[in-house]
Design a protein that fits this description.
By secondary structure, this protein is an alpha/beta fold. The protein contains 9 helices and 18 strands. The longest helix is centred in the first third of the chain and has 15 residues. It is elongated and about 65 Å long.
Length: about 325
């Protein structure tokens, strides 16, 4: 989508960057083609799968901008406040230079154009492939930088992290159904900003806790809230994370890619959890009740039990991973 609009804009003579200048790209996805931006590109991307995919293509990929830049490109995320923050960062970085902004209609690109028109100069707007690419210059963006939100219990969140306004109802339900005693080591797979980890560390018998999270910002929020010396933090894709076998895995797996539901994400989390567990290990997970996870749970575990009668969520306790179906570190 982004590459189609960039190519069209370049062909039409509408896309221009300062010759030989450095370009900072915010939020590019792992499969985005950035070749039209030249060879002095730095990509700011905090989602581990996209970060690694872009790095494998040879890009300079960081979690925060480093240095000075002559132009910027912002790929709009779904979260409005995160989008505004990225645009404000880009404007700060380039001063009077161009800030190009790209997004799908479903990601709010049209409303973003309307919001920016009174605040700066909107240049060419390229409409193609169900989205728009446009240039912003001379902008003043008061109040567009993201603020940290403080939650009860010492937690903090930032715009764009999952459930930034407070704990997800599924996580609250799962936390209340965890056993009072959880002996041994635990992995919080997809730990977010640390809500479930906090509750895990209050269970008797926990000797070590690994927080695994792909979103760098969410993991930094968790570091702020979780100061227990038994906790260790891993910026990693939960689907491919490996470690020494543990006694328990706890998780509230995601099930969306952009706006589309994708149960394969949850299935991949279940497969990964089985691989992380000891032969007598336990999986504790919550999921929306309609998601079809039973087949993959039966494939990877000897026994599964639904602990909840909640109409919206199922809380699954799965025991004893089937060794023939799992990968090892």
């Amino acid at each position: 989508m982004l590459s189609a609009r960039l190519s069209f804009a370049r062909e039409e003579g509408l896309f221009e960057l300062p010759e030989g200048g450095r370009v900072c790209v915010f939020g590019a996805r792992g499969d985005d083609d950035l070749s039209l931006l030249g060879d002095q590109v730095q990509v700011v991307q905090g989602m581990k799968p996209d970060h690694d995919a872009l790095g494998a293509l040879g890009h300079d990929v960081v979690v925060a901008p480093d240095g000075t830049f002559d132009a910027a490109l912002v790929v709009l995320p779904r979260a409005r406040d995160l989008a505004r923050d990225r645009i404000a960062q880009a404007v700060d970085l380039v001063g009077d230079g161009p800030v190009w902004i790209d997004g799908q209609k479903t990601d709010g690109v049209e409303s973003m154009i309307r919001a920016l028109k009174p605040l700066g100069t909107i240049g060419p707007v390229i409409s193609k492939a169900h989205g728009k690419l446009f240039c912003l210059t001379g902008a003043t963006l008061p109040g567009w930088h993201a603020e940290t939100t403080s939650l009860e219990g010492g937690f903090i969140t930032r715009p764009g992290v999952f459930s930034a306004d407070g704990p997800d109802r599924g996580s609250v339900l799962l936390a209340g159904l965890l056993p009072e005693v959880m002996k041994g080591s635990v992995v919080d797979l997809g730990a977010g900003w640390g809500y479930l980890s906090h509750h895990i560390l209050h269970r008797d018998g926990v000797t070590a806790l690994h927080l695994v999270e792909a979103d760098h910002t969410a993991l930094e929020c968790a570091r702020h809230a979780i100061t227990d010396p038994r906790a260790s933090f891993h910026w990693a894709d939960a689907r491919t994370f490996s470690a020494e076998p543990v006694d328990h895995v706890v998780m509230n797996p995601p099930f969306h890619v952009a706006r589309a539901a994708d149960p394969d994400l949850g299935r991949a989390f279940i497969t990964a959890a089985a691989a992380l567990l000891k032969p007598a290990g336990h999986l504790w997970m919550v999921a929306n009740r309609h998601l079809p996870y039973e087949a993959v749970l039966d494939e990877h575990f000897v026994k599964t039990t639904d602990l909840s009668d909640d109409p919206a969520f199922k809380v699954i306790h799965a025991e004893r991973p089937r060794r023939g179906k799992t990968r090892r570190a």
